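Extended Data, panel c. Modelled sequence:
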Amino acid sequence: MNLSRILAVLLACAIAASAHADAALDHAKKVLDRAILFDGHNDLPWEIRSYKEAPGDVAAYDLRVHAPGKGQTDIPRLRAGRVGAQFWSVYTPPEAEGHFARTQLEQIDIARRMIERYPDTFQLASTAADIRAAKKAGRIGSMLGLEGGHAIENSLGALRAYYDLGVRYMTLTHNRHTDWADAALQEPPAHNGLTEYGEQVVHEMNRIGMLVDLSHTSADTMRDALRVSEAPVIFSHSSARALCNIPRNVPDDVLQMLHKNGGVIMVTFVSGFVSQAAADVTLPMIQEYNARAQGKSEAEQAAIEAEIAARTVMPKVTIGAVADHIDYIRKLIGVDHIGIGSDFDGNQDWPEGLSDVSMYPNLFAELVRRGWSDADLTKIAGGNVLRVLEQAEAVARRLQQEAPPN
């Protein structure tokens, strides 16, 4: 075979491979158009709060155009990504001691004003039925997820008040222990899981219909919460510890408990949570930040975070790493217990091709190429978490008939 013939064959192979890739992407987009893609965790409200040009100014941070700076979320890209529903994280830093409730209320306010500002795009949702109705109306169903149980300041009354303001899940901890639950990234443990009061928090969350979110918690806290929860739980943004051995990810025995509980792990995209090579760089960064940020102002915390990030070089991570976690969890506990929890606008290090909210179809195209069925893709896109919401709502109705608030 002469050189020109060899080049022609190689070109034909390249064209065929490109066409196959495009076919998978086109198919993924069609699946997501029909499904409800429900992401478990996006930190846009904190990105708005920390916007340097106009901190906390919902109008100035205009979502109708490309987000400023390194922002990963705006309306054009949400639409391109086929996002149908979103848990907007209303995060409060555990390092900001003494200001938890105030900051939490401000974050809820920012998120609600953001949703209200774009009524043609977002629709505040309280129930799974609301999410389905928003999809039919062509809007992005929007729920709030409280990140960090420190924000309730050991008050079940505050927990109920946050629910009334629209919060539909609470992450029991962030990166520091609370007075009643151990976090994944603080050593040594303070309680070896949940305290008796921590169990009361979980029971009250079940009673009012707020999802128990176990991302950020220690493995023992995960086990205790799964033992006592009467409703399915979620991990809003975590991955499999067997593939990436960091405390933020979920051990196999806990995944097996999640299967029995009926809950969902919403696999995150963060490079340091899906790639061991990236994790070996990221984990020391998080530990340094936690040590230095304690008691600092929000501006000081942001400066520390930027300084640490500026001197860090991350290894390359591919989109296949995220798909590997999804495949692994399906083989271990089944497709009914998987969701998607990106953590966009909460990090800056992402796999190639999965770095903002427009790129969900790329991940689903990878799964199409791996032979996933449309039915299973629809489940992990949002069907599973909607089922968990509906089951939690049913548990709440039962428990409210059995017992009053504590």
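The radius of gyration is 21 Å. This feature is highlighted in the accompanying rendering.
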